[in-house]
Design brief:
heterodimer; A: 545 residues; mainly alpha; Cytochrome C Oxidase, Chain A; 66% helix; globular; B: Four Helix Bundle (Hemerythrin (Met), subunit A); 7 helices; 77% helix; elongated
Chain lengths: 545, 214
């Protein structure tokens, strides 16, 4: 393991690292009561991936139901419960908090050379809000029979069903509040705690991505909060705010819901985009091409992302002008996303590419994200959307973007930063082959859904016409391959974190500030406060070539 | 505001028990939080505008059933409380601790007064048969029910904020008395003051929308 470009302090101290307990608490309490952003980040990671595992199991069962037409495996109600839970857990408890609360918490202060976030105690408070909120959601969904609303809680059904929607929605409200507080914390941190010399345009692109994400979080989440609160109040007091009987308009609920939930898609995808920039810069030994364009396109995506929520509602009965405007704006979002992809590809040109596991994840991301993005344009066009809406095509598009785009990079980021977090390395050979397995499994699982959706297979049905049987079976086999890949990956990562060989502070030759401190970092992050002189992706050896 | 200009090096000596408070950062966090509060209400303002657009005439007629006198008195109460809030902060900054405590107590008292009046108002209305789903509203055109749904929701949520604000100010009061908030370190009181003013501003918008549109 050749360490390239070792930083000034070439030490791999583990004594005094953040993993060692200091202070008056011992054992588990030293973690649960810690305001150290690194420990909070790790705790979030454990929570999130526990939920992720549950979500994956539910997803597998959803697929398995399709083994034969007619729903022989579970009754329809159980199928409804499965897709509702899969959606709620994956969206609200996994991808929306996602990268910011886990790796963002851990690496934002490190990347800007700070000792912690601006409000450490608030950070811990957000964590507990998240824990409480998720506990409320999960218990509530089972109180009054199986949940059956889908993750969107659309009215009027969500007002009429007798299942535990009221409390579950309130749980989502609490989780949303946690997300708002994290956003405020990160924004203040980025504004106030950058190391001397780190001007805005010397910030790593992951920090830019978190900055844009945090704005989306604090601007969009309150709208969701009030919308969900309205459901709670409507159900408890029988206020007919969305009920047509009282003169209300159910479509307004959809508007309010998507005013949040569309920007939420960008909460899910912007941080991974930031990480892609980091990984490409590190493994091509080049500065990133079009740094400012990438930074600004994050903000542009965040901004335009607010104005496109209507594309979820083309068939919900909006006016035709509204449909056309939303469709047009949807196409506009593709521009900043395209800017990023082209800049990433350009960054690799003449780079000295080192295909380590994190970089391979980025390669997989490029393919999957492009397929997902382009299929999004098919859905963003009015004529085709009418045909494809609420079919498997949407499901495939969404999973290509969020799973293939976002979550694959989440995995890539774990592979990238695990040596920094624990000072140890996983088995890189296994990791590399495993990426191939997951890539194949993923495509087998979701690509047939594009075809089935195009041929008219509606989503959220427990049964299907016999003509789809072959494609459904391919998809089911894909889900097994993908899960096998996931299991290998987690075992490899966990084993690496605990028992892997020790590595130095900078195993990849990264240039951003987190690589200039020890692995794992000390409680205070840096021995002495770093001073930033160069732009973030300044590779010294690149100049001598 | 002179304490804001911390030297560059002092900014980063935070953490680890002996924080040099980043006053600017705390205020920034508070402003961002206030923005999220505004957006929380904005969802309801959006609903209000949409329904008022659908049922313009009914909304105007329904607004005649709200009690403008209650509303006006409450507006005055809340505006006065904002004044005493500002006075309390100024008094503390000038080093007059007990004057500040007096003003802060009156702010809390006015806030509670607002809630009492609100309670009286709601009771009157419910007594008159105006509440969501009531038979009385059922006899009126459809927009009536929506108007009063919005009325109870928005003033209710606002009232909840007043209650939370009173709790927050009470904590601040205890801090001042115990000497945890002082002339030199008054940023928490200022932040709480910002929150109180926000509550006031939201009411300033609610008042015309529900009492004066007739």
């Amino acid at each position: 393991m050749a360490d390239i470009a070792l930083p000034p302090q070439d030490i791999s101290v583990v004594e005094g690292s953040y993993l060692e307990n200091i202070g008056k608490h011992k054992g588990l309490a030293a973690w649960l009561l810690s305001t150290d952003h690194k420990r909070i980040g790790i705790m979030y990671t454990v929570m999130l991936f526990s939920f992720f595992s549950v979500g994956v199991v539910l997803g597998i069962l959803l697929r398995l139901e399709m083994i034969s037409p007619g729903g022989k495996l579970f009754p329809p109600e159980v199928y409804n419960a499965l897709f509702t839970l899969h959606g709620v857990i994956m969206i609200f408890l996994f991808v929306i908090p996602g990268i910011p609360v886990t790796l963002g918490n851990f690496f934002l202060p490190l990347q800007i050379g700070a000792k912690d976030v601006a409000f450490p105690r608030l950070n811990l408070f957000s964590f507990y809000l998240y824990v409480i909120g998720s506990a409320v959601i999960l218990t509530a969904l089972f109180v009054n029979g199986l949940p059956d609303t889908g993750w969107t809680f659309y009215v009027p059904y969500s007002l009429r069903t007798t299942t535990g929607v009221t409390v579950a929605v309130f749980g989502v409200f609490i989780v949303g509040f946690s997300s708002i507080l994290t956003g405020i914390n990160f924004l203040t941190t980025i504004h106030r705690l950058r190391a001397p010399g780190m001007t805005w345009f010397k910030m790593p692109l992951f920090v830019w991505a978190l900055y844009a994400t945090s704005w989306v979080q604090i601007i969009a989440t309150p709208v969701l909060a009030i919308t969900l609160l309205l459901i709670v109040i409507s159900r408890i007091f029988g206020i007919g705010i969305f009920s047509a009987a009282a003169g209300g308009d159910p479509v307004l609920y959809q508007h309010l819901f998507w005013i949040y939930s569309h920007p939420a898609v960008y909460i899910m995808i912007l941080p991974p985009m930031g990480i892609v920039s980091e990984i490409i810069a590190t493994f091509t030994r080049r500065t990133i091409f079009g740094y400012k364009a990438i930074a600004m396109s994050s903000l542009a995506i965040a901004f335009i992302g607010y104005l496109v929520w209507g594309h979820h509602m083309f068939v919900a009965g909006m006016s035709q002008q509204a449909d056309m405007i939303f469709s047009f704006l949807t196409f506009i979002v593709a521009i900043p996303s395209g800017i990023k992809v082209f800049n990433w590809v350009a960054s690799m040109y003449k780079g000295s590419i080192d295909p380590q596991p994190p970089f391979l994840f980025v390669m997989a991301f490029m393919v999957l994200f492009s397929i997902g993005g382009l299929s999004g344009l098919v859905l963003g066009s009015l004529a085709t959307d009418v045909h494809l809406t609420a079919t498997y095509f949407v499901v495939a598009h969404f999973h290509y973007i969020i799973f293939g785009g976002g979550v694959f990079i989440f995995f890539g980021a774990l592979h990238y930063w695990l040596p920094k977090m624990f000072g140890r390395m996983y088995n890189k050979k296994i990791a590399s082959w495993d990426i191939l397995v997951m890539f194949i499994g993923f495509n087998l699982l979701y690509f047939p859904m594009f075809i089935m959706g195009y041929e008219g297979m509606p989503r959220r049905y427990f049964t299907y016409l016999p003509q789809f049987e072959t494609l459904q079976h391919i998809s089911i086999v894909g889900s097994w391959i993908l899960v096998a890949g996931l299991i290998v990956m987690f075992v490899n990562l966990i084993h690496g974190a605990i028992k892997g060989p020790r590595v130095g502070p900078n195993p990849w030759g990264g240039t951003t500030l987190e690589w200039k401190t020890s692995s794992p970092p000390t409680h205070e992050n840096f021995e002495e406060e770093p001073v930033v002189i160069h732009e973030p992706y300044y590779h010294e050896e690149a100049l001598t070539r | 505001m002179s304490e804001i200009s911390l030297p560059e090096s002092a900014k980063h000596t935070e953490h680890a028990g002996h924080p040099k408070k980043d006053v600017h950062g705390i205020k920034m966090g508070m402003w961002l939080f206030l923005m999220t509060e505004l957006l929380l209400f904005s969802g309801m303002f959006l609903l209000y505008s949409a329904y008022r657009y659908f049922y313009t005439k009914e909304f105007h007629e329904a607004a005649m059933y709200t009690h403008t006198l209650f509303g006006t008195v409450n507006t005055m109460v809340l505006l006065t409380s904002s004044l005493t809030m500002a006075l309390s902060i100024t008094a503390l900054e000038k080093g007059k601790k007990w004057l500040s405590v007096t003003f802060l107590s009156s702010t809390i008292a006015l806030g509670l007064g607002f809630l009492v009046i609100k309670y009286a108002e709601w009771s009157t209305e419910i007594h008159e048969g105006i509440y969501p789903g009531s038979p009385m509203l059922f006899r009126h055109p459809r927009g009536f029910e929506l108007f009063f749904a919005m009325y109870y929701l928005m003033t209710g949520l606002h009232g909840l904020h007043v209650l939370v604000g009173c709790g927050l100010l009470t904590v601040m009061l205890i801090f001042i008395v115990k000497g945890k908030i002082t002339q030199e370190d008054s940023v928490r009181l200022e932040a709480a003051g910002l929150y109180w003013h926000l509550i006031d501003i939201i009411w300033i918008f609610l008042f015309p929308l529900f009492y004066l549109v007739n």
